[in-house]
Structure formats: C-alpha cells, structure tokens
Design goal:
Blueprint lengths: L2 H14 L12 E15 L3 E15 L4 E10 L13 E13 L3 E28 L2 E24 L5 E14 L2 E4 L7 E4 L2 E3 L2 E10 L22 E12 L19 E13 L4 E10 L15 E17 L2 E28 L5 E27 L4 E14 L2 E7 L2 E6 L2 E15 L1
Antiparallel strand pairs: 1-2, 1-11, 2-3, 3-4, 4-5, 5-6, 6-7, 7-10, 7-11, 8-9, 12-13, 12-21, 13-14, 14-15, 15-16, 16-17, 17-18, 18-21, 19-20
C-alpha cells in the first residue's frame, strides 16, 4: 500500500473518531529544542549511514486535534552522510500533525514536506570547471545541493504540566534525489543524464517544548499541585539511543594510507534501564543497549577496526534533585561497549627461521570474535513525571571508551605483528525513552 495514502487515511480516521472538544486550549503555540537521528539509505552497495542533529520546532495548535508545524535541524558533523556530501547539512520540514489528545498524553500522525540541503557536494555540471589537486577537471564543481523531502510518521506526546510537552517522533523521511549528470564511462569527460530516484529513510526525534500563554496552576491527576507521597523505589524503562562513535586509530598489517581520525560513526540502538532509588536524590542504575546495524560494514569495512553488532552495558549512579513534575540529575556509570566482530591476538610464540640466519621472530595467532572494552558514561539526565507511575527521560553525555592494545598480522618477517598502544576515545551519546515506577 502507498505509505502516503496510509498516513492520510489514518489522519482522517483520527479526525472523525469523536466530535471536536468544546474545551478551549490555553495556548496555541509550542516552541522547543530537539535531538534527531536520521539514517539515510543510499543503495545496496554503499548501505546506510546515521547522523545526529540538533534543532527546534514551532507548533501552532488549530485545535486539540490539528496543528501546523515548522521544524529545522542542523547536522554538525562535516563528513555528513558519507557519500552524499562532505559539508554540514540542514533539514527543514513544514506541515501538519493530526490525532487525539488525552489528559496526560497524545497520539498523532504527521505529514510534512520540506528539504535536506547538504554542503560540499561533488556535482557534475555542463560547462563548470573544478581545480582538482592542481589540475582542471571539466564539467564538475563543488557546491551545495538541496533535495526535496517528505516526513511521514507518528508522534507520541506527554504532558507533565500545563506548560510542558515531551515529544517522541518516529517515521519515514522520504528523500527525492532529482535528475543529475554523471561522467560517461566511455567518452570522458562527456556527461550523461541520470534520472531521479526516491529513498526511504528512518528518522527518530526526541524533544521538549514549552507552551506559551497564561495557565492555571499545574495540578496532577489527584488535584494537588505536586505529586504526593514518597518517590517510588523502582523504575523500569525502554528507550532508543544514538551513540556517535569515534573509532580507535586504525593500523594496517600491509602498506596502506588511512587517516588517523576516522571521524564519528553514529549508530542507532534500542535498550532498557532499571533504577533503584535510594532516596529522592540518589539512584542506582543498570542499563543495556543493542545496536541494530552492522557497525563499520560500509564506510571502513576494509580496515581492521572493531565491527559487527555493538552492545553496551552501564552500571552506576545518578545524583540530583526532583522538582515536583521534573528532575535534573548528573550520572557516572562505568560499564562496557562490545563488538561481535573484532580482530584479536589470542596467542603468540617465538619461531626460528634458519633461512634468515636463524632469526627469532614473534608469530601471532589471530581470531575474529566478540570483544568488550571498558567504558564510562558521564553526563546529565532530565526526567519528567507524568504521574506517580509514569515518567519520561532524556540522557545527554559522554561515553568514554578505553580501547586496549590492538594487534594485526604484519606483512614482513621483520614485523609479523603490528601493534597499536591502548587509547581512550570520547563519544557523544543521546538517549530518550519512557519508564514505569513502582
């Protein structure tokens, strides 16, 4: 079934599900920041790549069911969407959301056209010239290219207070790449025109918004101005996470030229969390995440860096303060980040080579398997308490990974084992989800 038709049908059914409420809304306008992770699919050869972005959203609520929205996002990494362009990118979507709003949460569908604009793109253009390492390359230039997009998906909103909205979006960002030119493989530098193409891409967004206007005093479901009773001792939650990994410095067992810094590779994942609250201000936590993609399978598959599926476990403490309907905490949680396909030196031995003046050389035995590295998650947490039992949470921080000594097979008898000393890498991680307290 056509996805556009499916979304429009869902929106129509939501609109006619009940009569419009006579209750007036205290505010028509919502404004707030957000984080997003966009996974772009290129083709079967190049695979897909995920990039993190930061932005803001402005919403005008026509009524309790329908709203118009404008959203802008900046993707800060310069090697944005590897293979699409080498500059920073911006995204903007403008459209409508429609659904049903309950007292503490709302469910909506969305349809929002817009664009994705990427800088420093290699473009074949008739008549243009490009200075390429001291030579002139005809019919080419470096510039910005903009692609038409359509954002279709679902929205889940939570309302901790009259003024606050916590929002999670998930959907398909459809990108249309227009017709373009490529070099003719037979008659270089002549150009041939290629048709446009459409790609479907997963995008997940989490953010907070603030309603503008005058409101009555915030109250919870029990009618009191703040949640009553002690803080529940246990919390169990589910979440999505985005880890922008800075891989360890690669080494090659054969002559090769590779950059010292491969740049961040962002991986999306899913996970869960268990918290035991010692007091209102201190909690003990255990969190596990699994990253669904094959790490390193497209960009740097030729390098012996840790790859395969990633998994993560963090165990530690959060400390902070609760303010009625929300809480702010700091966290420090040691743990591990693992990879299912990592090259390991499992043993070594000294062998004598009579053909080379009885030279004694260390020879290694290597295997590919699962390896875990020590990690420490340091950062901040913002929690919103929808009721005594339900909460939402967003984490922002630095996941510090300590990579041990790394070894690869050498390419000469003088050096049959190439080694890289241990090193530490800092990695940005964002997590957003919901939890249940008891």
């Amino acid at each position: 079934m056509n996805p556009t038709f499916l979304v429009l049908t869902t929106i129509f059914l939501l609109l006619i599900s009940q009569p419009t409420s006579a209750q007036s809304m205290e505010s028509k306008i919502e404004l707030g920041p957000q984080f997003t992770a966009l996974t772009l699919f290129f083709d079967e050869f190049r695979g897909d790549v995920t990039e993190p972005g930061f932005g803001a959203r402005l919403t005008y609520n026509v009524n309790r069911k329908i709203a118009f929205e404008a959203e802008g996002t900046l993707f800060p990494n310069k090697t944005i969407f590897s293979g699409l362009g080498e500059g920073r990118a911006v995204q903007a979507q403008f459209g409508v959301k429609a659904g049903k709003r309950f007292s503490k949460f709302g469910i909506f569908g969305k349809a929002r056209p817009g664009f994705l604009s990427v800088g420093e793109v290699f473009i074949n253009e008739p008549g243009a010239t490009l200075d390429f390492f001291g030579s002139t390359l005809p019919n080419a230039r470096i510039g910005r290219r903009t692609h038409f997009t359509t954002d279709l998906g679902g929205v889940l909103e939570f309302y901790p207070t009259n003024r606050t909205v916590v929002r999670f979006d998930a959907g398909d960002t459809i990108v249309r790449y227009g017709p373009h030119f490529e070099y003719d493989p037979i008659n270089f530098p002549e150009l041939v025109r290629r048709p446009g193409r459409v790609r479907h891409n997963l995008q997940i967004t989490a953010g907070v918004a603030f309603r503008l206007g005058t409101f009555p005093e915030d109250k919870d479901a029990s009618g009191t101005s703040k949640p009553a009773g002690e803080t529940p001792r246990y919390e169990v939650g589910i979440h999505f996470t985005s880890l922008s990994l800075n891989p360890p410095r690669p080494i090659c067992g054969f002559p090769c030229i590779v950059p010292d810094d491969l740049g961040p590779i962002t991986e999306p994942g899913l996970g869960g969390r268990l918290t035991f609250n010692l007091t209102d201000n201190i909690g003990l936590e255990a969190e596990g995440n699994f990253y669904t993609r094959q790490h390193g399978s497209s960009r740097f598959s030729f390098l012996p860096i840790p790859s395969g599926h990633m998994f993560q476990g963090q165990f530690g403490v959060k400390v902070g303060k609760r303010f009625g309907s929300f809480g702010i905490f700091g966290k420090a949680r040691p743990g591990f980040v693992g990879f299912t396909q990592a090259l390991r030196l499992v043993s070594s031995r000294i062998e004598t080579f009579p053909a080379f003046d009885n030279r004694q050389i260390e020879v290694g035995e290597f295997r590919i398997g699962t390896t875990k590295y020590f990690s420490t998650d340091v950062g901040g947490v913002v929690e919103f308490y929808l009721s005594r039992r339900v909460m939402t949470r967003m984490d922002l921080g630095d996941t510090i990974i300590r990579y041990g000594e790394f070894a690869v097979p050498g390419f000469s008898l003088s050096n049959l084992i190439g080694r890289r000393p241990p090193e530490t890498k800092h990695n940005f991680q964002f997590t957003g989800g919901i939890g249940f307290r008891f």
